[in-house]
Amino acid sequence: MNINMETIKIDYSQLMDLRVDFAFKTFAEGNPDSLISLLNAIFANAKINRIVKSVRLKNPNMDKKSIEDKLSILDIRAELDDGTDILIEMHLHGISQIKSKIIRSWARAYSEELEAGQKYTSQPPTITIAFVDGAVDPIEKHENITNKIHRGCMIMDKDDNTVFTEALELHFINMKAFAKAINEANSININEVKEDMFAYWMSVITEKEINNKDIIENARKEKEVIQMAVSAIARQSEDKIMRQAYQRRKDEIYFHNVELANHLQVAEEYKQRAEKAEAENEKLRQQIATMQDN
What we know:
Helix content is 47%, strand content 14%. The chain has 8 helices and 6 strands; from the N terminus they run ααβββαβββααααα. The protein has a 6-stranded mixed β-sheet with strand order 1-2-3-4-6-5, sandwiched between helices. A hairpin with a 6-residue loop joins strand 5 and strand 6. Helix 6 (214-222) crosses helix 7 (224-238).
């Protein structure tokens, strides 16, 4: 349905990048109706029969336990109207070990929900939605799913694929794959996306990578919630104090990932040295064995 309303002109070059967790968290917490719409679009795209009517924001309260967690936690944690706990994470960088990090975050959140004396069976499920800027699996390992835009994961029986428990539900949303597909099609009509609202929201979130801004403009004209969201992002981007905090966060993420990359590079160098030393030792052992045989 077309929304008959005058849309203000948006300078997209000045908008904050919602893929930066600070901007996304600030936007989502300040616009609960937009967050509800986004969540419903994600679940609908995954063909999950779940309608979110309200959200109650909570403190993520996640401890920093390793070098990957050096950054302050800026995830969104909320409770849905049916009691389901939900974690929403935005990862623009550092996705090489993201699966392990997300499982740890989910486990901590799930364990925190059980109160003393409460039955295990009464505990509501915990859902994690992770926006990631790229594939979470090496292409050579999972070539058939590496470029999927939306992966929904649960604990399942490996033989008959029946769901073992609904306590864990993970959604990995590949922002890079989405932007690539949209740019190639020059339209929201791409095969993997089943719901227009999911495409509209993803276009807003990945706006910095969308070549044709008319796609977002059309979304603004079609859906009032998208129009209100983009206007909210524009106002947020014009706030000088907010802008300074956003830039500090961008710098913090950048330098953290440089440090992490250096850490991983050093670890890889040590691994290669150890493998080389072991190969040389094995060669020497074989030479000694040959001399003893002679």
